Amino acid sequence: ADQEIMKCILYLNRTIYVGHREPPPGTEAYIPQRFPDNRIVSSKYTFWNFIPKNLFEQFRRIANFYFLIIFLVQLIIDTPTSPVTSGLPLLFVITVTAIKQGYEDWLRHKADNAMNQCPVHFIQHGKLVRKQSRKLRVGDIVMVKEDETFPCDLIFLSSSRGDGTCFVTTASLDGESSHKTHYAVQDTKAFHSEQEIDALHATIECEQPQPDLYKPLGSENLLLRGATLKNTEKIFGVAIYTGMETKMALNYQSKSQKRSAVEKSMNVFLIVYLCILISKALINTVLKHVWESKEYRDEPWYNWKTEPERKRNFLQAFTDFLAFMVLFNYIIPVSMYVTVEMQKFLGSYFLTWDEEMFDEDTGEGPLVNTSDLNEELGQIEYVFTDKTGTLTENNMEFVECCIEGHVYIPHVICNGCQSLNKFKKKKKNFCHIEELFFRALCLCHTVQVKDDDSVDGLKKNHLSRRSRIYISSSPDEVALVEGIQRYSCLKNIFYFFFRFELLEVLSFDSVRRRMSVIVKSSTGDIFLFCKGADSSIFPRVKEGKIDQIRSRVERNAVEGLRTLCVAYKKLTAEEYSNAQKLLQTAKLALQDREKKLAEAYEKIERDFILLGATAVEDRLQEKAADTIEALQKAGIKVWVLTGDKMETAAATCYACKLFRRNTQILELTTKKIEEQSLHDVLFDLSRTVLRHSDSLTRDSLSGLSTDMQDYGLIIDGAALSLIMKPRQDGSSANYRELFLEICRNCSAVLCCRMAPLQKAQIVKLIKLSKEHPITLAIGDGANDVSMILEAHVGIGIIGKEGRQAARNSDYAIPKFKHLKKMLLVHGHFYYVRISELVQYFFYKNVCFIFPQFLYQFFCGFSQQPLYDTAYLTLYNISFTSLPILLYSLMEQHVSADTLKREPSLYRDVAKNALLRWRAFIYWTFLGVFDAVVFFFGAYFLFDNTIMFGNWTFGTLVFTVLVFTVTLKLALDTHYWTWINHFMIWGSLLFYIVFSLLWGGIIWPFLNYQRMYYVFMQMLSSGPAWLGIILLITVSLLPDVLKKVLCRQLCQPLSALAPSPSRVALPSVPLLFWGAEKQDIHSLIWSTWTG
């Protein structure tokens, strides 16, 4: 029983023996535990399972499985067509896809090996030893040097710094590139040598691995894999989580195969046509057996069946059914999938060749990691974006400060700028308050100073420009300190140097939203300086010009600036002694330490004198606000998902115009939930937004009306965890639905303090909601990889935080501003082109196969083909494939400039508008109508003509078919170039030349030549020429009439576009082929279904 209890405890916690100094065998209550090694695995296949696993995944696609069945049927039974016609195209598609996916997985293997073979220093027998990262085990003591990345999750034992601290950047984990301070374990921080560390006998009790980045055990002692050591020579740590159990690995999302909405529609249409195919085969099989039910009608007299053969009716019927399936199989040609793959692959080059999306600063252009999702770029309904490095440049700029109601504006004081600029101030002489204000900024921060590298063995002179580097956990503090330093040097404010002793630091936290320091001057005066959010400082102020400063802070907040208020109070020796005792008691508390510290801070931080406020701007990326505005006008909802603090993220949302002046902010945060229950907060928010739901239409959400009240929601990671957490009473699902309902009625949503896996959960929650919207995630750091993989389309920014996001994304772009053209222009074109390709392919194959179905009624259901084998094979491969391929690459129904200027046109093709059932049925019936015209037109026109035999009749129908479907594509083409002319007229000419050669020469390698002289005989007849022209004209008449009516009625006969408009196409450069500009002088109508 004791052993079972101990196993349960070990399941909840893990025991780690530092340096693998385990107790001797037989020790009571000791159960050895097994932990994984330090290997990271992101690849999908291995050498042994690649072929079976890849084939299984490919044949899960309905199309591939269908063509495999058809190929097997052709092999097993005697069919009208050769197995080669199905086998070779299928083999080509499977092989190309396997090579592509194998290459992508090889790149992942390569990246994994580079990470797993990275050298790591660890202590063994008192010495420093190097070994590969993958060989690390839990319990190993590791040494990490400055600028190195932590190889696994470590408990921080000691540091080269005397105070036992180190500085870490976690940009790859939570997107924050600022420096964070971590503290060594108190009992081990004095161990500085390898021998001292190796002599350590210690045991660590910790929880099992969890993905939550913001609730780690002893967070100040825990160094996470992926973080980087900064401003510290070296540290020692013990490995507690390794490999796929590290928090970074647990926050990774596995890479799954993504399917576009167009591909899903193709699969649905395929099932419909498969049902039509089966129906045709069943009808013909039944009618054949009805026809043969009369004696001696089933076979010629010289091949009569015997009685036993006549009794095998079921087997014969099944064989006939399969033969008819193969005969009508061309209604779903495998060449369509080959053409779609080629269109996606070649079409992706339009994106990579776009010079407007090339960034000269970085020398980078857009990258396409997968071309399978090109058309999905035209269907996006939700954009989930990271903040730091994506919307912003993560470069703080000190904008102004307000002291005693007077505003001081530095012309330019920027983090990283070398120039000094004079203040334009309203008050010339500094008073005591102003001096205290700047002194507070100089003292109340967590900035660390680091000297620049030596030059020629000597340190740079302290007077040299930018000889010191400031490092802090907050980039705001760096901007403030650098700005004050430059200003003070220029104005000689602190001409005399003052020395202060730092007594206490009251650290910043997201609940208090402020930080304080207690310092002692050289004269013995003790001051408490405090800076923080206005909502945190103003209630604790007893005097100062509160109204003037509050007014300025509110104005700056509306402009999207990050504001901080500064206050102080002077402490007596007795007050300081009491404060010190309070802090010491709270710090030494073994239980509820954080709560007691918060209570102590609350007692100390009160009765302030308000000094002033600062304003810092996190510079947005170029045209970030313009891009978001265009996306919203296009009907796309934009959500910001960030690991940053709420105040910082909210300020950025205002700056990039995601939140506007009239946006009412709704909060669903930990602070709010502590005041009320989650249930009450959700229902209050729901009542608030639903009260105005009637006015919040889709147009108002994306039209950016300044008169209408709209809502913005702010939620943090802790609140999201409560919403997503399964409950025993099953109420979690209700919370999720309520949360989604609130989000649907908000114009914008900000999710802050998000762990990487929580970002992916948010994307998945929206993706799987009842509307099933198409989602896009964009980010620049490794912390964004999970949501990039989860979204329908993932886009990586080629930014400062490495290329992990770009490598794992579907597409990569240099800057956020390029997202506008990528979606509104390229995405729009991709979707329209491939939609036309899919509908046209089904249309032309209905035209192709339906006459074959009708012909069976005139040949006794004998499975006699109407067309020659060469025509059956080459129809989709040669005669009609190239014109539609080129059309799907180059067609521009509206100019690129018009699409950028009118983002609302994006909504016309949203929600898969061009592949809905109405359009599908239109194209199908149009194909049936044309097929009926081909067949019965030729039948009735030449019924009594003796010279027209079986193959001549079929050739006549096929000639009308090829010309009709090709000319229809010419009618639908809006953007003409010489290449279009070459492909369209060249395809028709190729058909004629091929037919003349195929039927005009006796080919020695053919066993039979039934088409000999057939084509020339048909063309030698004048009525045949007239009949071909007449049938082509009648077939194209519906399209021509529709276009004429569109022009006359000034309204397109579009069944799909919600608000089509007439658009004049200006001169458009031919990007793909590098040709000169083609001037198009006619007005083009967006007639989608035609």
Automatic annotation (TrEMBL):
Entry's transmembrane regions: 59-77, 268-287, 321-340, 870-890, 920-942, 948-970, 982-1006, 1012-1037
Catalytic activity: a 1,2-diacyl-sn-glycero-3-phospho-L-serine(out) + ATP + H2O = a 1,2-diacyl-sn-glycero-3-phospho-L-serine(in) + ADP + phosphate + H(+); ATP + H2O + phospholipidSide 1 = ADP + phosphate + phospholipidSide 2; a 1,2-diacyl-sn-glycero-3-phosphoethanolamine(out) + ATP + H2O = a 1,2-diacyl-sn-glycero-3-phosphoethanolamine(in) + ADP + phosphate + H(+)
Main localisation: membrane
Keywords: ATP-binding, Cell membrane, Endoplasmic reticulum, Endosome, Lipid transport, Magnesium, Membrane, Metal-binding, Nucleotide-binding, Phosphoprotein, Translocase, Transmembrane, Transmembrane helix, Transport
Molecular-function GO terms, alphabetical: ATP binding; ATP hydrolysis activity; ATPase-coupled intramembrane lipid transporter activity; magnesium ion binding
Active site: D386 (4-aspartylphosphate intermediate)
CC cofactor: Mg(2+)
InterPro entries to which the protein is assigned, alphabetical: ATPase_P-typ_cyto_dom_N, ATPase_P-typ_P_site, ATPase_P-typ_TM_dom_sf, ATPase_P-typ_transduc_dom_A_sf, ATPase_P-type_domA, HAD-like_sf, HAD_sf, P-type_ATPase_IV
Chain positions recorded as Mg(2+) binding sites: D386, T388, D780, D784
UniProt record similarity statement: Belongs to the cation transport ATPase (P-type) (TC 3.A.3) family. Type IV subfamily.
Residues annotated as binding ATP: D386, K387, T388, E477, F508, K531, R562, T642, G643, D644, R753, K759, N783, D784
Residue ranges of domain P-type ATPase A in the record: 117-226
Protein name as it appears in the record: Phospholipid-transporting ATPase
Keyword match Ligase: no
Subcellular location: Cell membrane; Early endosome; Endoplasmic reticulum membrane; Membrane
CDD domains: P-type_ATPase_APLT_Dnf-like (cd02073)
All copies of domain P-type ATPase N-terminal, residue ranges: 32-86
CC per GO annotation: early endosome; endoplasmic reticulum membrane; plasma membrane; recycling endosome
UniProt xrefs under NCBIfam families: ATPase-Plipid, ATPase_P-type
DNA damage as UniProt keyword: no
